Every structure is written in C-alpha cells, then in structure tokens.
C-alpha cells in the first residue's frame, strides 16, 4: 500500500511538473501590430508561455526588446523574404524546442512614393514585399521551418474576404502592364491550404477589419466563408484577434479549425447606446461552439495553382 501511495505521489508530481512547464511558442511578425500583441500577451503569462519573438530586422528587434522589457534572447531576427536556404537554417535554430508557431506576418499596404496621375493621390502598394513573396512564399517557409523543427501546432492569422477573388484588397500592388502583383487574399489562401495539407495541427483565423482599439471589451462573433461580411459590424480590435490566437493554443476545440472573426460594438454606457453591443467575450473555450464543427470551405473562391505560381514569379522578376 505504501509503495502504491509513493508511486501515485511521484506520478502526480511529475504530471503537475509537466503541466506547469511553460509552452515554448515562436511568434513571427512580433515587431508588427497584431504579432506584437500576441508576443506581449504571452510574456504576461510566464506560467503558460515562453515566447520567442521573430522580427524582420535588427531595428525592429531592438524596438521590441525596449518596448516589452523582454530578454535579448527572446527575440531573433529572421526575414521571411530571405534566401530559402538561409531562412531555413535560421528558422531551425530559432524554432528549436518550440511546440507551436504563431504566424502574424503579412505584406503591408502603404504609399509607394508615387502619385496616381488621375486622382492626384498617393499610390498604394507593397514597397516592402509583394503578397506573393510575403504571404505565400514567406508563410510557406515558416510552415516548412516549423515542420523541420518538430513544431506540432501552427496558428496562422489570415484575413476575411478570401472567398471573393474580386475583393478590392486584391487590387493593391498590381504591377501595371504585367498582370502580376497584388492578390493578397489569394496568396494568403494558398498558404492556408498548404498549412492544412502539411500534416501539422493548425488553427487559421480570418479577422475582419483590424482596428486599434482596446481589446477585452467586446463580444466576439465567429463564422465561416465570409458570411460575417453581411453584418453591419465587420471589424475587430487587433488585441482581441491576438487573444484568440493565444487562446487557440490552450483549447483543443481550436485544433484543425479555420474560421472568421469579427466583434460587436462595445457594450453601451447607457440604454441609449448601440443595440448590437453585448457582454465582452471571456469564455474562449466556448467561442467556436456556434460553428457546430464547421470550418471554412477552401473549395470556394480561387486558390492560385502551380502554373499561377510560376507565372507570378516570372512576371515579378521581369
């Protein structure tokens, strides 16, 4: 009896120790807005997470260390658009010992420096990297790096609108006369499909319009296949998106799921406030319940194939 009791105590102690071990998670795009929120949320929960932030360059790394107060070895520099072999070498080193990867990298629309002669307004595009390079090739490299490093779960932050090839977001960054460039939602969708077919556990979150307002104050709403675009409220705070990305690593229901995410307006301060507002979401284990197991359908819309991949690469090089 004593021997059995001792064994039980030891087993319980080992189990508790294993549960108490913080989860080592790599967060790419940690120097950006949404990725930065993910990284900070994990730093604030040292009992659950041991995050490693990935920044694109040294300046971004130094800024992230200064703003978060994290240790220097908690942030590494890896450019997803770097040479594939060099990227993989750095990724395997940075991902070592990690059980999960949160991908928050994305091509960023900004002024290109040119002016539209018809409107007189600044031309918008992707001067820091086309979606083909960042959202497809860059995310594919991250997924490959995760797989090569023994990472088990990849969480990917995408975007709503992917079922509609004519979505206006796809127009940004088009190269005049070549038919190449832009199509950010299409290349994101190809990366998502690649992740789903990788054999890794995945969670893919498609947020609506991202806004820089405080998180934790709104009721979150989930859906699939861009059905939430029909709502009057189609935005969601970056902080709330980051919380869902973090929570996806804590609840089994988020494994192998792809869904859309928006929020309702914050609860009104008085009865005369917005009628769409509701209590802020706090039960993330139940967030996906209304979907009844449904996932986004990747048979909808357009996903570039291998021929489109080759044509895009050739056109952007010319």
Explain the overall architecture:
It is a single chain. By secondary structure, the protein is α/β, with parallel strands linked by helices. Helices cover 34% and strands 19% of the residues. It contains 8 helices and 12 strands. Strands 3-2-1-4-7-8-12-10 form an 8-stranded mixed beta sheet, sandwiched between helices. A two-stranded antiparallel sheet has the order 5-6. Strand 1 (23-28), helix 2 (33-43) and strand 2 form a beta-alpha-beta unit. Helix 4 crosses helix 5 (131-149) and helix 5 packs parallel to helix 6 (184-196). The longest helix is centred in the first third of the chain and has 19 residues, at 2-20. The chain is globular, with a radius of gyration of 21 Å.
Characteristics of this structure?
318 residues; alpha/beta; two-stranded antiparallel sheet; disordered N terminus
How is the secondary structure organized here?
Layout: H1 2-20, E1 23-28, H2 33-43, E2 49-55, H3 58-68, E3 75-77, H4 84-95, E4 100-103, E5 110-115, E6 122-125, H5 131-149, E7 153-157, H6 184-196, E8 201-207, E9 209-211, E10 220-223, E11 235-237, H7 238-247, E12 257-263, H8 306-317
Parallel strand pairs: 1-2, 1-4, 2-3, 4-7, 7-8, 8-12, 9-11
Antiparallel strand pairs: 5-6, 10-12
Helix pairs in contact: 2-7, 4-5, 5-6
């Amino acid at each position: 009896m004593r021997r059995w009791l001792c064994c039980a105590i030891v087993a319980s102690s080992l189990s508790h120790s294993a549960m108490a071990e913080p989860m080592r998670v790599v967060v790419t795009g940690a120097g950006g807005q949404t990725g930065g929120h993910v990284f900070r949320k994990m730093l604030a929960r040292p009992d659950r997470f041991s995050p490693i932030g990935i920044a694109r360059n040294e300046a971004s790394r130094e800024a992230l260390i200064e703003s978060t107060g994290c240790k220097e070895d908690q942030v590494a520099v890896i450019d997803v658009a770097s040479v594939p072999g060099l990227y993989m070498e750095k990724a395997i080193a940075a991902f070592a010992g990690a059980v999960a990867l949160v991908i928050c990298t994305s091509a960023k629309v900004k002024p290109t420096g040119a002016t539209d002669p018809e409107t007189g307004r600044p031309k918008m595009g992707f001067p820091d990297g086309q979606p083909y390079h960042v959202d497809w090739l860059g995310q594919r490299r991250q997924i490959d790096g995760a797989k090569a490093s023994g990472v088990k779960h990849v969480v990917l932050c995408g975007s709503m609108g992917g079922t509609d090839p004519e979505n206006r977001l796809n127009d940004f960054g088009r190269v005049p006369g070549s038919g190449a460039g832009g199509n950010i939602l299409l290349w994101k969708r190809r990366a998502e499909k690649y992740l789903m077919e990788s054999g890794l556990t995945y969670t893919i979150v498609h947020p609506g319009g991202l806004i820089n307002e405080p998180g934790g104050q709104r009721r979150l709403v989930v859906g699939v296949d861009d059905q939430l675009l029909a709502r009057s409220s189609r935005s969601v705070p970056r902080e709330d998106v980051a919380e869902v990305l973090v929570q996806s690593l804590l609840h089994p229901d988020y494994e192998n799921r792809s869904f859309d995410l928006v929020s309702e307006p914050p609860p009104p301060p008085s009865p005369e406030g917005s009628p769409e507002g509701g209590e802020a979401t706090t039960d993330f284990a139940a967030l996906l319940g209304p979907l009844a197991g449904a996932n986004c359908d990747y048979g909808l819309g357009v996903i570039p194939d291998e021929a489109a991949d080759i044509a895009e690469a050739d056109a952007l090089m010319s």
